[in-house]
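Help! Submission page says 'invalid entity' but I think these are all valid:
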Amino acid sequence: MQVGLKVWRFNARTGERELAEYEVDAPEEATLLDVLDIVKDKHDGTLAYRKSCRMMICGSCGMRMDGAAVLACKTRMYEIAQAGHVPVISAMGNLPIVKDLVVDMGPFWQKFMSVDPFLRPGYDEPPGGRENLIRQERMNVIHKESLCINCGCCVSECNSMESDPRFTGPQALAKAMRFIGDPRDGHKIERLDALNGEHGIWECTRCYFCNERCPKGVDPRDAIAKLGAESMKEGIDGDMGAKHAKWFVVSAKTTGWLRETELVPKTQGLVAAIKQTRFALDLAVKGKVPPPVPPHVAKNVRQARRLYELVRDEDMNGYAGIVQGERALGKLAHGHVSGETLEEIYSRPGAFPRPYIAEEDEETVTT
Amino acid sequence: MHVEATHDVLVVGAGCAGMRAAIEAHDAGADVGVISKLHPTRSHSGAAEGGINAALGNAAEDSPASHTFDTVKGSDYIGDQDAIEILCREAPGDIYQLEHWGAVFSRREDGKLAQRPFGAAGSPRTVFAADITGHVLIQVLYEQLVKRGITVYEEFFAWKLVENDDRCQGVICWDLLNGGLKTVGGKTVVLATGGQGRIYRTTTNAYACTGDGAAMALHLGLPLKDMEFMQFHPTTLYPTGILLTEGCRGEGAYLITKDGERFMKRYAPNAMELASRDVVSRSEQTEIDQGRGIDGSIFLDMRHLGAARIIERLPGSRELAMTFAGIDPIYDPVPVRPGAHYHMGGVETDNDGATELTGLYAAGEVACVSVHGANRLGGNSLMETITFGRRAGRAAAEWALSHTTVDVPRSAEVDAERELRELLDVADGERPWQIRNDLGTSMLENFGVFRREEQMLAQLDIMDGLRDRYERGVVIEDKGDVFNTDLTQAIELGNMLDLAWCMVQAGIARKESRGAHARPYDYPTRDDENFMKHSISRWVDGAPQLSYSEVRVTEYEPMERTY
């Protein structure tokens, strides 16, 4: 098949950028990485990009296609080429470009290092030097976070990092959750404390781009939510972001509605709130702020309170609530839900012949 | 250019073996540097899927002795038995240590590490993390590397070993990110550069697996051992050659023909799909050759495992099948065929990773201790990287700490600079890719699962031609300093051409069928009298020269090998 690509080239020596266009002949099963290889071999040996495993596990080939981060090896070109679309390929975002599609991963690894990315055992080693005994369900808490291949796609897309390059960022925070949720680690409070500071978990704007673009289903935003919930549970709630989130809960519990007028003083404190009085009045005049008195109480406020109690009674506090809510392993599975029996699968229209052993059970051969 | 830095121990390669060696050398008190042409977590150890073997006895009665027996038998009796005994004895301790470091292994109901059945193993012995075991190990080893603050020279392409005073004293590298040749000195050097599967066009191996370490050692005149033994993995995905783990069959998947017949009954009536890899690959190839496959593939059928088990235990394999073949294994069998996977041979070492050259050690796939002999058992290679990576790291540190100086002669650097210029200055000629493709295609055709004398001889001629074309000079279009992979790929091709020559030469000379070296047309059986020995390839005057060495036998006498 004929495949067209536009690639944002970047000359390391001159700093010049150029949108180069290529058209190559590629096999139908070709991925974006295969097409880049053809360009490099047959058209322009100077094109630079990273690659290694070509099976979505080494994390080398993160780049952008039409502005969204992808792994080149995971991106099949057939449908794109058939549609006559010529995608624009560029280097990942939020990281300095070194050459063409190669970025400097230095800042990425710096943030990775900043979360102490190694187990800090908190307990004595088990007797006899054997393994720690841990149920699989308990390990599932960090299953998704441990799938991360450090490709950088989430960091590339992170909107918070674009406005604050010092934000710890989705990858490093997911890595932090991998240790905070690990029953073998003994430094949870210390770790959470560190992540609650400036540039920490509360700086995430919850845009969900990282979840959307992660090629491995790590869902970094969910990891950040788990870290927030666990911080609250442990009473680490001094950050403005934590106060903000807490007020949502208090407000919903007491009146069943979010009381916006109280949100600013509860989050930023009284002084900051007074400084914003003028802004609040402007909003009020335009009808954007409900009057604080009398408080707006939802008709079925009891239901809101009951919900709150239910979550509390089920001990769904902290990361446990989020992990169990998402059914970690199920979500990995490309959303598989159907529950056909084997017999139904074997007799689907066009199904592949069912397995048999010659001589022993030849009668089961489907013809 | 001059010496960038000097370390007590310099490890080349940052996969499981390299990182384990670095950690051990550090813990032994050495100052350690690690060189890798990739970032460490991008190493191909991370693509290992199914698991790592240790006789923990968590799932059933097991013992290091039983593990040893299976491995000796699997090696078709040319694994060195003392080395295999070390591996099997020390494996459990190494696994527990990885668990204590934080490896996210899969668990049993009782909280112990889960173990699954694997090919040719007498007991469910394979510890695993779903089907991403290598990924989990590479992460935990990198975490431990970071914890110790070990220096890593990322994206440094190792090009030449520095030999001076009959010692290995460093490595000359091409700095990919910034350009330029850089020398890193080491009192000892540990090669852990992995395999060379890219010699074949259809392979499970990463683009990085080009045998750089083995080629560097070869060019220094060191012996490479058992080069003819390339393992073909039975389940690589059609058409890309991407690996689907043996764990699929460990969890109970079937291999079937296009009509649904479980053909392994005819080749390995007891072990069925879980026979040794060489046996399964040959069976598949026979079925395919006799027309019972489709598009040169037979089928891996997981349907009867059910969605829940596939999703819990084999999520990565399902993702690969869906992404690269468009098939959901819950509903349809996956087309698979044998593909080049693991090179049993490599740089000859003793049981502590030491090579013939003082100060040079090797561990992992680049090395040949040998624990795999003529055929590796699934799950044994990850274990080898850890156990022998550790032993090599320890030995390298001990030697380094009892010696003081490092001296890289200026002439070595000048020679390298000149050679680099010559490479880059070629203006007219062929681009390397056609030679690379021709090598890969012809090796698959003539030196694959089954080997015929005339095809192997023809392959020698083909490779003569390929080397001629290469030596006439290939054009490197990128003359720049920054991220010049055009240059490194050309160097890699040169390495692969020389290693492939060693492989085919050793293959022609081995007139028997043993393990992965199958000659059904002229020498269909094993010949212990003449060939129960290791092939040794040495580079002499620009060509490999073949000799043989004895297999170390402890207590396991050769027996007929059936499954």
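Support: the input was valid. A stray whitespace character was the problem, and the output above is from the cleaned input. Chain A touches chain B through 80 residues (CB under 8 Å).
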